[in-house]
Queue: 2 jobs
Job 1
Amino acid sequence: MARIIALANQKGGVGKTTSAINLGAALAEQGRRVLLVDIDPQASLTDALHIDASTLERSIYDVLTRQVPLSDILQQAGSLTVAPATIDLAAAEMQLISEMGREQLLADALATVAMQFDDILIDCPPSLGILTINALTAADSVLIPVECHYMALRGLAQLVQSIEKIQRRTNPRLQIVGVIPTMFNDRTVHEGEVLGMLREQFPGKVAMPIRRSIKFAETALAGKPMIEYDPAHPGGQAYRDLARELLQ
Amino acid sequence: MARIIALANQKGGVGKTTSAINLGAALAEQGRRVLLVDIDPQASLTDALHIDASTLERSIYDVLTRQVPLSDILQQAGSLTVAPATIDLAAAEMQLISEMGREQLLADALATVAMQFDDILIDCPPSLGILTINALTAADSVLIPVECHYMALRGLAQLVQSIEKIQRRTNPRLQIVGVIPTMFNDRTVHEGEVLGMLREQFPGKVAMPIRRSIKFAETALAGKPMIEYDPAHPGGQAYRDLARELLQ
Ligand SMILES: Nc1ncnc2c1ncn2[C@@H]1O[C@H](COP(=O)(O)OP(=O)(O)OP(=O)(O)O)[C@@H](O)[C@H]1O
Ligand SMILES: Nc1ncnc2c1ncn2[C@@H]1O[C@H](COP(=O)(O)OP(=O)(O)OP(=O)(O)O)[C@@H](O)[C@H]1O
Ligand SMILES: [Mg+2]
Ligand SMILES: [Mg+2]
């Protein structure tokens, strides 16, 4: 049975998509069969792996709203399998509101392919709406990417509350397995202080920081994870270390 | 009549909140009466100005869903007046779905205070849902903060399409008045290239970049705009320049 990990944080621009792609690539390098699921209407993950959303007839939108089988929409991006998103997904929030059991839709879809993968990573949008709720209901683990800025700290209490609500109501097995400090600049006092606060709030769960590097932005333009774009780059190594920690 | 400016971009973490606060402060410094409206359920703007959301009995949520007068919820933060948000706002997306004329709710509320202000800035959440649609329907101008990374470029076409749809359906006077390159690192080739692409896509509308500085993250911890936190800082000057451009 596949392990299902949600990359979630309603704060925007903290490295959810970048972490899903690079952690996924590091797990695949270890021989794991990895599925990346894009449930963000921005379709950043789909685009960053150069899957052209405009050529897709079907996407995760059709799986959630029209019972199209998940296996019908899967795309290959190097060593990674991707369930892509398109902009149609923006309409899903409104369409699913009145649906019975709407939180379970993604969990049900992932169950149909769980035997084919070892790890399923879900890239969430920057909100706590119905799409992120679907991801947290389907997942057994949550990884929380965080930028070490005060403004990113603030939303964590809201996120933890939402996770606790989901544990009580729809998914008792959900666990926060880690907090990933991303785009970290160790030359600033502010980021060091915020990192300290994170370690106090989440004792034993804060991974080694992933340092800020413009090369991560370049990888999205190139359509590749860092370990393919620049195999010797320390950023790729940091995600390898994270993958190894998760596998223990 | 107040000028109403929406800070919008569904890409997360591109400096919407930071731009609303610092542009607002620069306009107030020029003697303008400025209202900042927080319609993001994360309530980043409310928190970054150290308005304690947990002590508020009413917020923008009550204005949109219970017809509480906007003037009843206003708070003062130094030279700025703020219409604060609380986490309740997350429920508004679902509650407003079936409401008649739901796109106009914010516009109607702002009309009740428009005579008291010269500039009203609206800080949008990182999505194109009903809250951002309310902001774009109420506004006469849109400012688009963008990080000069490939991943931030991608969503602009979606944003422009949404703006065009709003112009056709609910708000014909809406105009894109500017694109603000934020958190800019001029020592990288990638950001220079993306800035060039922005200038091609939005000729004549791209403002001077606001450079990356950790001091912006510190201002949120201090609860102040940059021009109060560190009056000589070039980041504050960059927003003063932007304010002057807007006033012409
Ligand atoms: N370690 C890093 N160093 C420098 N830039 C990074 C790093 N990680 C991610 N980035 C860049 O920062 C930006 C934000 O990252 P990303 O898009 O992955 O965040 P996100 O949380 O998925 O955003 P959203 O909330 O919009 O979904 C992107 O342009 C990405 O290329
Ligand atoms: N010029 C800058 N230099 C460095 N950091 C900045 C700059 N502008 C903003 N920041 C920081 O970057 C982070 C993202 O900015 P901000 O929260 O304003 O973006 P946003 O678009 O409002 O995010 P969201 O999509 O979550 O609403 C914050 O931690 C902020 O302090
Ligand atoms: Mg993302
Ligand atoms: Mg914001």
Job 2
Amino acid sequence: MPRVIAITNFKGGIGKTTTTVNVAAGFALKGARILIVDADVQSNVRISFGVEEPRRNLYDVLISNKPVADCLTPARPNIDLLASSDDLVAAQSEISRRPDWGRVLETALRPVVRHYDFVFIDCSASMNVLNLNALMAASDILVPTALEHLAIEGLKQLGRNISRIKGTMGSLRMIVPTMFDARNRQSHVLLTTLRETYGALVTEPIRINVRLSEAPAHGKTIYEYDPRSNGATDYAALVEKLSVMFGFK
Amino acid sequence: MPRVIAITNFKGGIGKTTTTVNVAAGFALKGARILIVDADVQSNVRISFGVEEPRRNLYDVLISNKPVADCLTPARPNIDLLASSDDLVAAQSEISRRPDWGRVLETALRPVVRHYDFVFIDCSASMNVLNLNALMAASDILVPTALEHLAIEGLKQLGRNISRIKGTMGSLRMIVPTMFDARNRQSHVLLTTLRETYGALVTEPIRINVRLSEAPAHGKTIYEYDPRSNGATDYAALVEKLSVMFGFK
Ligand SMILES: Nc1ncnc2c1ncn2[C@@H]1O[C@H](COP(=O)(O)OP(=O)(O)OP(=O)(O)O)[C@@H](O)[C@H]1O
Ligand SMILES: Nc1ncnc2c1ncn2[C@@H]1O[C@H](COP(=O)(O)OP(=O)(O)OP(=O)(O)O)[C@@H](O)[C@H]1O
Ligand SMILES: [Mg+2]
Ligand SMILES: [Mg+2]
């Protein structure tokens, strides 16, 4: 069975999409077959890969009951994308009214999941019915966080909600500190706080790196845009750590 | 009638809460009577003001039908806060099932709105039923945006959704560039792009300023934490521009 990994955090702008794109791309380069589900109406995954808006997407799967296999878009070798769309904004209320409203995504993905080694779900910030579906469908949860007070504060709430939705915190695999700025005292202080509170869950930080924020404008992963950058080095290291954890090659 | 101002953007982490807190505080210092509604489950407004979790909040108003006047918390002189809560996560689906699901917030606020000069609604990132309610209730919309590709890209989608929900873009008053970093070429390039696309809607940028990211940890507004900082200067200037626009003193 593949791992279904939700990349989530209520806090916005802390690196969820950047982590989804560059972890998925790192695994694909190692030969893993990857499905990325973009559960955020912003469609930032598609933009980050430089992929045109496809004819079919997640809305077609969840609302129009089209088969998943017909709604996938190849993003890179070894990476299929189930893209998001504007229509999902209106779909949230419709999904909420269904009796199985928490399992809609898990059920929809079931026919194709076994063709992949990893399924990554990029979540939007805040909590909505799509994010709830992502948590329900996930076997593993990865939580990026910026090293800022509001983001660190928000982890407690996220933990409460993961426990409420999944029954335990057991599926929370890693907390990935992002945008670590060695010149900034706050970064160091909050990284220490994070490690004191969450121990071995906390990975090495992803350093702040302007190349990571430039890459989406070129529709490239960090490995394509600047393979010798700190961003590429740090995300490759994270992929290695995840590979070991999930026993992949 | 007071102005009801939704501070919103699908993109996360681009300065919605920072703008809500420091614009509201700037107006309160000028003697305006302010209500802040925190429509984001993260409760970042409460944290930023250093206010304890109150007994009653927005959940009590929307779901338990408690009168708004009984659910307000004084945050500062001239500032009342209708705080958010964890329970709002579960409330979204419940609200979605109501026939008047888009007008629930507007209806709930009606009894108290006339006691204030301004009502500010801090929205979460992404789109959910609470954010939809905030847009429906708002007479004016203020959109902060970071000067990054994904955030600027997202403005087009936000504009489409504002038109869809409000019928026109007429209530969009300002786009406020945040985290402007003069040392970073991308900041300059994207600020120019923003001005070319949205013209006079775009205000002077809020400069990147570590004091703004430190202030929430102390539960202080930027004027309290570091009144001589760039952050305090830039937000005070924004308050002046809004005062002129809304004809306040
Ligand atoms: N390590 C980093 N160094 C510098 N910039 C980064 C880094 N990680 C992400 N960024 C940039 O910061 C911004 C926010 O990152 P991203 O969009 O991945 O966050 P997110 O959590 O997915 O946001 P949202 O809540 O809107 O979905 C983006 O412009 C991104 O390019
Ligand atoms: N001009 C600025 N300079 C430096 N840091 C800033 C600035 N504006 C905001 N910040 C910091 O950036 C982070 C994101 O800002 P904020 O939380 O206000 O964004 P948001 O859009 O409300 O996020 P969310 O999508 O999670 O609601 C916070 O830690 C904040 O303190
Ligand atoms: Mg994202
Ligand atoms: Mg916020």
